[in-house]
Amino acid sequence: MTFFSRLVLLLLALQLAACGKEPLYQEQAYVFGTQVDVSIYGEDDAKARQAVILVIREFQRLHDMLHAWKPSELSDLNTSIAQGKGRQVSPELAMMLKDAARVSAQSDGLFNPAIGGLIQAWGFQADDFKAVLPDEKKIAALVKANPQMSDLVIDSTNVKSKNRSVKIDLGGYAKGYALDRAAAILKQQGIHNALINIGGNVMALGTHGSRPWRVGIQHPRKPGPLATLELHDGEAIGTSGDYQRYFELDGKRYCHLIDPRNGHPVQGVEAVTILTHGEHAGLLSDASSKPLFVSGVQGWAGYAQKMQLDEALLIDARGVVHLTAAMQKRLKFTDESTPREVVP
Predict the structure, then answer these.
(1) DSSP character at residue 132
(2) Counting runs of H as helices and runs of E as strands, what totals does the chain give?
(3) Cβ distance 256 to 116 under 8 Å?
(4) C-beta of residue 241 within 8 angstroms of C-beta of residue 256
(5) Of 7, 8, 27, 295, whose CB count within 10 A is highest?
(6) Confidence at 129, pLDDT banded by 50, 70, 90
(7) CA 28, 29, 35, 40: dihedral to nearest 10 degrees?
(8) Which of 2-16, 83-97, 325-339 is least confident?
């Protein structure tokens, strides 16, 4: 074989190898205290990289703006509220607070970003958690003070509170809001096929080539997914679980998800996952999972209906998966013997 023939064959082989490479660009970052993954399909690396840079930059902006215990626009507002004063905030934050108050009212206050004082008392407004129980008298006082989002008085961009015990923590809202912002930025950049994952809150744009995006729902007690499902364009899933931010003491797990009615971490629930659609699907995937988690095994189905969530599941402390019939149709369980209870 001549040198020229070998060169032609080598170039052909390289060309075939390049054709076989999936056009998938993936980038990871760490924002909002969790891992962020962005996958973009069908675009050249330069275009995809630039779009991801803009998304991560937006995530960092929101993180800095909404940080609950480090200097931020939100922490400045909390300081003013504690002093009984009003404060001018950005139009964006005012809009978020109004929207969070709306979701809180819809959930009968089970989604309650005003209980930052309770979250702080349990040690979860920190990068590292210590296995220490708070003073019960302090918890009782905070519960009695009954901080609610409805205590806020929002006049254009001026915010004040009728209750000084209100301390806003948007940790159960910000990731979902960021998903919607990421989707808008990607579309502005001409990206139509992408998957955005912020610590288990996931939104899909378009498809993964000729097929839908497929994502896993983390098993709360084992490595790997409990189940997988296909996410279609504009859909999002959100999971609230007791396995990421928690501490254990004397064999008992205390997670960051606080029941505002008694001031204590929710017991008896390992995880809740919901599937959302339409406008603000990302935001809904984050905020709307909390009432189901807090209401527990007895109340979750009622709140799924109240929050207009057709596809939802709850995993109880025994590992039983309680789920709606609509969610059952969407899932492929890793272990088909997983115990399940389906509600209409």
Answers:
(1) -
(2) 10, 19
(3) no
(4) no
(5) 295
(6) confident
(7) -40
(8) 2-16
CATH superfamily ID and name for 23-41+194-343: ApbE-like domains (3.10.520.10)
Question: In whole angstroms, what is the distance from residue 159 CA to residue 77 CA?
Answer: 8
Q: Which residues contact 148 (CB under 8 A, 6 or more apart)?
A: 104, 109, 112, 114, 163, 166
pLDDT at site 21: 62
Residue 182 token pair: 């990421």
CA distances from 343 to 219, 230, 241, 322, 329 (A): 21, 21, 21, 7, 12
Tokens 């009728």 label which residue? 162
| 283-318: pLDDT as tens digits | 999 999 999 999 999 999 999 999 999 999 999 999
**Which of 79, 89, 100, 235 lies closest to 174 in space, CA to CA?**
100
Q: Are strands 269-276 and 311-316 parallel, antiparallel or unpaired?
A: antiparallel
Task: Quickly count: other Cβ atoms within 10 Å of residue 228's Cβ.
Answer: 15
Task: Quickly state the pLDDT bin for 127 (edges 50, 70, 90).
Answer: confident
Which pair of tokens denotes residue 309? 């969530």
Rounded CA-CA distance 147/68 in Å is 16
SS3 of 271, please? strand
**Res. 33 pLDDT band, cuts 50 70 90:** confident
Residue 308 backbone class (left: φ over 0; alpha: ψ -120 to 50; beta: rest): left
Structure tokens at 218: 């983390």
Distance of CA 299 to the CA centre of its chain: 21
Share of the chain above pLDDT 90, in %: 91
CA quadruple 72, 39, 280, 190: dihedral positive or negative?
positive
| Segments making up each domain of the chain, as ranges | 23-41+194-343
